[in-house]
Structure formats: C-alpha cells, structure tokens
Amino acid sequence: xxxxxxxxxxxxxxxxxxxxxxxxxxxxxxxxxxxxxxxxxxxxxxxxxxxxxxxxxxxxxxxxxxxxxxxxxxxxxxxxxxxxxxxxxxxxxxxxxxxxxxxxxxxxxxxxxxxxxxxxxxxxxxxxxxxxxxxxxxxxxxxxxxxxxxxxxxxxxxxxxxxxxxxxxxxxxxxxxxxxxxxxxxxxxxxxxxxxxxxxxxxxxxxxxxxxxxxxxxxxxxxxxxxxxxxxxxxxxxxxxxxxxxxxxxxxxxxxxxxxxxxxxxxxxxxxxxxxxxxxxxxxxxxxxxxxxxxxxxxxxxxxxxxxxxxxxxxxxxxxxxxxxxxxxxxxxxxxxxxxxxxxxxxxxxxxxxxxxxxxxxxxxxxxxxxxxxxxxxxxxxxxxxxxxxxxxxxxxxxxxxxxxxxxxxxxxxxxxxxxxxxxxxxxxxxxxxxxxxxxxxxxxxxxxxxxx
Length: 453
Fold this sequence. Notes:
Layout: H1 8-28, H2 33-40, H3 44-47, H4 49-61, H5 65-71, H6 74-94, H7 98-125, H8 132-160, H9 164-184, H10 198-204, H11 206-216, H12 223-244, H13 259-289, H14 294-300, H15 302-322, H16 324-345, H17 351-366, H18 369-378, H19 385-418, H20 421-444
Helix pairs in contact: 1-7, 1-8, 1-9, 4-7, 4-11, 5-7, 6-7, 6-9, 7-19, 8-15, 8-18, 11-12, 11-19, 13-14, 13-17, 13-18, 13-19, 13-20, 15-16, 15-17, 16-17, 16-20, 19-20
C-alpha cells in the first residue's frame, strides 16, 4: 500500500455509502416489475432481464477487478465507477424505451461488478490483520442492511411515486458520493502496471454464461442451454489453463494452493447457499403452505435480514478475539439447526414459528460469511488480496446459483413424486441441512487463531 495520508473514517464512510447505494439498486428493483410491465407493455420474462442481465454483466466484471486495482489509482477508479453507475441510473430515469432502461441497468451492473470485490479488498488492505474481522463485520452490516431495506424503500416509493423515483434516489446518492470522494477517497492501493489481457476477459465470459445456465436450469434443460453450457465449460477450462500458465495472469488462481483460503471459499459458498435458499424457499413456504399474501410473505423475511445485519459486527469482533473456528462453528451450527427444525416442524409451523426459524438460519450466515472471507484473506499475502476477493465473489455467485437450482429441482421433483407439498418442503430443508453439516465439518478444520499456520 502506498504511504498516503488520509482520513480513515471518512474514507471508509464514503466507500461504504457508495457500495450501499449500489447494493440497494440490486435488491430493490424486483418490486417494480409490475410497473415496468405496464409502462413498456412487456411480459415478466422480458422484464426479468433487468435482473438477469445485471447479474451476468456484474459477474463478468468481477475477475477484471484485480487488474483494475493494480493499474488504476484507487481514487480515480472509485470515481469512474460511481460516475458510470450515475450515468446508467440517469439513463434509467430518462428511459423512453425498455432498451434504454436495459442499457442503463447494464452500466449500473458494470459499476457494481467492479466495486463489490474491490471495496472488500481495499478495506482489508488498509486495516491491520488483527482488526479485519471488526471492519468486515461493519461491511457486512452495511451490505446486509442494503438487502433488507432495498425492497422496503422501493415499496414505499412505489406507493406514492412513479418507478422513476427509485432511480432518482440512486442518482442523488451517487452524485453526493462522487462529490465527497474528491475529498475523502485517496490512492491507498499500490500499483503494479501490467498489460490488459483481452483474451482472458473474453474467456472469463464463461462465468456469467455458466451462471445463466444454472439459473435457467430451473425452467428445464433445452438444446440451446446445453450448447451454451458446453461452450462455457470449454471456455472456463481454457481460462483456468491460461491463468495458470501466464507470468502475470488476469486473475491469480494459484490462491487455491493455500489450503486455508480454499476452505474459506467453500465455507463462504455454503453459507451463501443457505442464505439464498432461505430467501427463495421461505417466501414460497409462506405463500403455498401458510397461505399468506405476497406482501406478508415479503415482510416476513425482514426480521431475518435485520438480524443478519445486526449480528455481522458482533461476529467480526468475535473473529478478532477468538479466531475463525469458534465463530464459524457457531454459524454453521445455527444453519444446521435452522434447517433441521424446519424439516421436523414443517407440518406444525405457523407464521411466527417460520419467521423465527428463518431468523436462525440467516443468523448463522452472519457468523460464517464475512468471518470466512476474512479468514481466507488473512491466509494470503497482501499482494494477492484482490485476486482472492475476486475468486471468492465469483465462486459464491456460482455456488449460490447452483443452490437455487438444487432447491427448485428438489421442490418440483419431490412434489411430483409424493404429491405432498408439505413433504416436498421437508425434503428440501433436509437436503440443505446436510449441506450445512458439510460446512460444519469443514469448520472443524479451521485454526483456533485467525492467523495462518
């Protein structure tokens, strides 16, 4: 890191505020789908590309983020990212057609794909190792809060205003963050200039392609999807081979040679799978099993999201104090307990009971996600932090999508085989309880202290 004097709290506040606003834009949009459908006279399938396309572009930019951090001064990079997000948001506000709205969303996704791994790398780079748990816990609080309040903010705005009000809010925040960045964001990352590897970027498109295949599998396997999957797998293998045989790869995959990092990546992935499954399966459970309205179903997950956010700083402090094993074992135990109780009690649960068990599983995530990310980062030398964060984020996306496919397949097939919706939920909860057990066993191999060795 360059020896640059800067206001540490102001730097972190601006960085997290910018990332927070971008995260809200990611989680808040689905609430506005009916309004988009009415405005542009399009079906839900087409409108859903506002999220699907966003996710694909975001996942393409994640492997590029380490190169950007090493070749562009961070203050200039951050300002360019915020400006790109702001331009995309401005297009969404104007949007005379769906095509313009889609272009705006893709520009937003480009910015988010860069900032999500980068902000974690920067936070860990400017923070002493023994304090990383606490600072990443605060980051987890901010990001968790964004996911929790995103649908709430969009719901409130859409009650009284047109859907453009959502993007106006994001635009205002972006402008404020951009102005503040000239005072608070400094070039804190050391630069190591290297040529840009365009072929690797093209091959890296295999990851969003695989992500698309995984998310589309919930609708069944088609010939077109199979062709995309084969091409994506070939490109992914080529990408890995190229990175391992270049002196300066776009993304340093040799981070997997560090055992502790690899363990942390899979722990993060397993906890993310648990989180995604909870946020997808529980609303279905609320609506089809408990027969509540979609509004009540959505609000019923808010307590779990709030609990997850509030526990993140606490788990970070525990990580710094007690080391990773104790913290991760607490989290995985909560995840396993939550899914086990859901499996056993499904026939007897009321709404309050289901909300409480959703809170248990998401609380477990607070003790695994960020602590595992921090543990993996601490196992790497500082010059590989950016690569490690990008690898972790990419793997988390892929494993999360695989979890969604598995949950959807389990619910559909068990329903077809048994004709019993209650039993299909029990089978699905049991499957992810077993996955949680794998995470629990993996957590037992972590060190008692946070440092590698």
